[in-house]
């Protein structure tokens, strides 16, 4: 018996000839009736979904999350309910600014996106390898990302735009300092921490809440690359981080992280020295120490990169009962922007794809849309409320209420000290790291054509720490402006 698999069309019909088009005679022309040719070419034209605007280049793996400490008094989230409970998960790591074919080992933050397939639906934790971000209001995000992309005329990266924006956005200073430090180029995805970055809210069975921040600590140890080594690897093996993650898991060297939270009582938000919802700031671990939650282990590579890593979609709005959002203005914008990007890039039914599909039963009144590949709800009720026994809301799954007040207007945060934490970070570095950080900044700013932009940015470094500003200015052949002194 012939055990060969038959080549078929996408609708399952066997293909008679996959080497020659149907033509009018040996010379042609080609006939439009060759539906296999038409399908093959049409599908080929559509093989690349639009790449992500940010985080385009990435790698991913499957694994599990296991609770190692009882946190049930803080949250009713089922997957965190008891010690020893395991939840399957998928992780995607990425650079931020580069295109899909860009190098892994560039100086850039790293995306750290986690999808937990819980029994109450998928929970996505969409963070970075840094605890803060460049901006704190989502209205600035498109402008910021434009500065990281290519100039519309030259189609080249544009340091003028990068540093012009940063110098006019002093809230970016903390993240810029991290980016230009030794932490700016992780050695591998396995050797970096992850952070939820934003403030979230945990709510327990009694409806009591706390503010929390996630810290995901690598158990492989922190390792980074110097600028010189990162540049060398980028030229020799631009897929270095992707390859490292795949090979480590393939040989059984499963990377592991411990997950912690900082917990802040709700009332502290009104009195803490930093606005706890400002994503450009951290909470002191002396004030709110780390509390262990569990561990995550990645132990299985994807079988197909496109189906799993490329089509994986994450949104900070993918929440489960017991985990809510905060008034963080950057997070509030991401709740819309991420899911909307997936609806555009992958399609309205992206959550029905195998990599994104929840493990539990899904019951919605959403119908139709491109790429609807299940039974589309069949003939069941398709509106709500209805008297036909359709799915109904679960009142206890509502997000916990919190009071709001004030005038509806375009207004910023009350706290505008963008220098103390950046300066504290600089002073925490040893002398060698301070020197390397300054060298990285000088190298990145050298191509900037405008001295006004350089001087404006130097003032920010100086206000964070006078030595910081003086050394950057000296490296650029400039002097710290008198007004900064």
From TrEMBL:
It comes from the Bacteria. Residues 8-392 form the Catalase core domain. Its EC number is 1.11.1.6. Keywords: Heme, Hydrogen peroxide, Iron, Metal-binding, Oxidoreductase, Peroxidase. Residues 1-26, 369-396 are annotated as: Disordered. InterPro entries: Catalase, Catalase_3, Catalase_AS, Catalase_clade1/3, Catalase_core, Catalase_haem_BS, Catalase_immune_responsive, Catalase_sf. It holds the Pfam family Catalase. The keyword Cytoplasm does not apply. It is an enzyme of class 1 (oxidoreductase). It catalyses: 2 H2O2 = O2 + 2 H2O. CDD domains: catalase_clade_3 (cd08156). SUPFAM superfamilies: Heme-dependent catalase-like. Belongs to the catalase family. This is Catalase. The gene is katA.
